[in-house]
Amino acid sequence: MENILEIRNLRVTFHTDNGVVRALNGVDLKLRDGETLGLVGETGAGKTTLAKSVMRLISPPQGRIDAGEILFGEVDILKASQADMLSIRGNKISMIFQDPMSALNPVITVGEQIAEVIREHESLPSKEAWDKALKMLSTVGITADRAGDYPHQFSGGMKQRVVIAIALACNPTVLIADEPTTALDVTIQAQVLEMMAELKKKTDTATIIITHDLGIVAQMCESVVVLYAGEVVESGPVRDVFKKTAHPYTIGLLGAIPKIHLDEHRLHPIHGLMPDPMAPPEGCSFHERCDFADESCALNHPELRIIGDSHSVRCPKAVSR
Ligand SMILES: Nc1ncnc2c1ncn2[C@@H]1O[C@H](COP(=O)(O)OP(=O)(O)O)[C@@H](O)[C@H]1O
Ligand SMILES: [Mg+2]
Fold first, then answer.
1. Ligand lying nearest the CA atom of residue 98
2. At what angle do helices 156-168 and 186-203 cross, to 10 degrees?
3. Is residue 227 part of a domain?
């Protein structure tokens, strides 16, 4: 399958009064056509920064993309013109943020908000855009009679459905969902995820799901990228990464269970903290927390290397199984 999105050596820093935050330190990622990819990692790993880079929403002067390429078909997003970006962002590449309220306008009805996006991107006449908006609402499980309601009249889960409807309204080629269910109740989370899985079957949109929940990855994704301190530490097909887990950090995330256990999906806490992104340690960025580390891990920064079919790991000790 073809890569619909390819990130190469992406480096992003944030320049603050307290110092330089190294948010992404040379990240590579490939998303194939129609694939669902899980991007996992604990808070501060750089997941949102990656998503915002793809949407080119890293704002200077604080945020800087120091190196890298983000190839979307023929276009390098990092070099695209403003005009190109307007046609890509929210149209060919859509993003769902964690907090549904931040994406919705409180004073416009939900039907109108969806119709607006459709009109803007497809230059459809009003009536047709409205009809399509109603269709989108029903796709995400909201009946047409709610189209005239305002966001505050919906529950959190329903609001996130509206946000998803907006994101999918223009049939994007790529959808990036940044922790789409984290702000929701657990039962509602399951409903929204189920709905997303159903949509996925219908639309086949290539999707990056950002999450810290490995259960979601097991359930919904074909491949997974594990981010740690702004670096990919392991990536590959979900089956391989879950069954032949190679990186000590991933092993920690999976609670040392080398099989897919759907009911064992909560993150098992790993002792210690992620390093300060303003002062990353020498050597491997995980060595201070790693049960397998020796002196060389504190000195040498490991490269990402291939250990199986599309399965890569950033640890010299990991062996392929
Ligand atoms: N606008 C910003 N200014 C300064 N630091 C930022 C900014 N955005 C993100 N960071 C920092 O970059 C790192 C990665 O953040 P983020 O991409 O939000 O991680 P994640 O989404 O995985 O939790 C963190 O250390 C975070 O504090
Ligand atoms: Mg985030």
1. 2
2. 20
3. yes
Instruction: Domain count for the chain, please give it.
Output: 1
The boundaries of the domain holding residue 320 are 222-321
Low-confidence ranges of the chain (pLDDT < 70): 1, 256-269, 319-321
- In a domain? residue 53: no
Q: What pLDDT does 264 receive?
A: 47
| Closest-lying ligand 1 atom to the alpha carbon of residue 59 | 1
| CA 84, chain centre distance (Å) | 22
pLDDT at 321: 53
pLDDT tens by residue, 174-223: 999 999 988 888 888 888 888 888 888 888 899 999 998 888 899 899 99
Listed residue (184, 204, 174) closest to 162, CA to CA: 184
What per-residue confidence (pLDDT) applies to 260?
Answer: 44
Spacing, Cα 10 to ligand 1 middle (Å): 15
Q: Which residues line ligand 1 (CB under 6 A)?
A: 14, 16, 21, 23, 41, 43-49, 62-63, 277
Nearest Cα residue to atom 26 of ligand 1:
44
Name the residue at shortest CA distance from atom 4 of ligand 1: 14
Give, for ligand 1, the residue of 16, 18, 21, 99 to mutate: max count of ligand atoms closer than 8 Å to Cβ: 21
In a domain, 249, yes or no: yes
Q: Within a domain: residue 29? A: no
**What's the pLDDT score for residue 215?**
86
Q: Which candidate, 82, 60, 56, places its Cα nearest to that of 69?
A: 56
